[in-house]
Amino acid sequence: MNPHQFFKLLSDETRLRCVLLLAREEELCVCELVSALEESQPKISRHLATLRSHGLLKDRRRGQWVFYSVSEEHPGWLRNIVAALGNSNCLAETYQADVKRLAAMAERPSRC
């Protein structure tokens, strides 16, 4: 993926918020992203499919759950940007609220 494609993918706020949470949490299911972002399941699923089809995300199935994570198969510059986003402590209030809602979510699916 070239820089133009990467930044174009992240120009959508919902996709950016998904990637920020995935970079921070390493792996999340759709229901966790729906809860954290307070968006509909179809909207989140559509954005995850776009990110996956461009190779930015990968998924794995475990029973009824589909877990998403950031793919490691990218150039170093891209991995560095995603890691920096996930480790940033000075994100806008919107993104901090996403993290808080995720942390407060009850009955999150098991990853075992």
From TrEMBL:
**Which controlled-vocabulary keywords does the entry list?**
Arsenical resistance, DNA-binding, Transcription, Transcription regulation
Q: Has UniProt tagged this entry with the keyword Thylakoid?
A: no
Highest taxon, organism lineage = Bacteria
Would you kindly state one Gene Ontology biological process term found in this protein's UniProt entry?
response to arsenic-containing substance
Ranges where the HTH arsR-type domain occurs: 1-90
Gene3D superfamilies named in the record: Winged helix-like DNA-binding domain superfamily/Winged helix DNA-binding domain (1.10.10.10)
Classification via InterPro entries? ArsR-like_HTH, HTH_ArsR_DNA-bd_dom, HTH_MetalResp_TranReg, WH-like_DNA-bd_sf, WH_DNA-bd_sf
Which molecular function term from Gene Ontology is one that the record holds? DNA binding
Q: Chaperone: is it a keyword of this entry?
A: no
Q: Please give the SMART domains that the UniProt record associates with this protein.
A: HTH_ARSR (SM00418)
- NCBIfam families with a match to the protein in the record: HTH_metalloreg, PRK10141.1
Which PANTHER family does its entry note?
ARSENICAL RESISTANCE OPERON REPRESSOR, TRANSCRIPTIONAL REGULATOR, ARSR FAMILY
Q: What is this protein called?
A: Metalloregulator ArsR/SmtB family transcription factor
Species in which this protein is naturally found: Ferrimonas aestuarii
